[in-house]
Amino acid sequence: MTTPTFATINIGTSANDGTGDTLRAAGEKINDNFDACVHRYTQIVDVTANYTIQASDAGKLLRVNSAGTVTITLPDSFDAGFGVPVLRRGAGAVQFATTGGASMNNEFSHTQIARQHGWAQVFVEANATGTAAAWNMSGSTAP
C-alpha cells in the first residue's frame, strides 16, 4: 500500500491578489485530501492468534478478533517512523510484547488495549543501532 499524497492549496502571495487557487480548485483539493485520509487504511489484517508485526503491515489496520488473549509482538529491527494501528474487536485481551533489544513506552506504562472495540497505535520512535527499536503505544490502553 502506498502512502497517500496530499495536494497543497495555493493561498497566493497576498489576500485577493489573484495568485492563489480559485475557491473551486481549493475546494476540490480539500475533498481529495479528505478522501485520502478516509481511505488510508483500506487493507485490514485479521488477527486471531498471537502475531508478530511485519514490515508489510505498514499502512494497514491490525484487527484482533479473539475470545482469548492475543499477544502482538513488536520486533527490534524496525526503523523509526514505522507504525501501525491495532483494533481490539473481540472480547479477548490484546497485549503487546517486545523481542530482542526492543522496548515499549506508554505514558502510563500500559501494555495492552483497555477494552473491546478500543484501539492502540504502536510506532517506533527511534532505533539507533538497528536492533533496539524504541516502540511507543498510545490510545485506549490499560496496565
Descriptive tags:
mainly beta, Jelly Rolls, 2 domains, 11 strands, 6-stranded mixed sheet
Structure description:
- The protein has one helix spanning 23-38, and strands spanning 44-47, 51-52, 61-64, 70-74, 83-88, 94-98, 103-105, 112-113, 119-126, 134-139, 141-142.
- With 143 residues, the protein is mainly β.
- It folds into 2 domains: 1-40, no CATH class; 44-142, Sandwich (Jelly Rolls), CATH 2.60.120.
- The strands form 3 sheets. Strands 1-3-5-9-10-7 form a 6-stranded mixed sheet, with no helix packed on it. Strands 2-4-6 form a 3-stranded parallel sheet, with no helix packed on it. The protein has a two-stranded antiparallel sheet with strand order 8-11.
- The protein is elongated, with a radius of gyration of 19 Å.
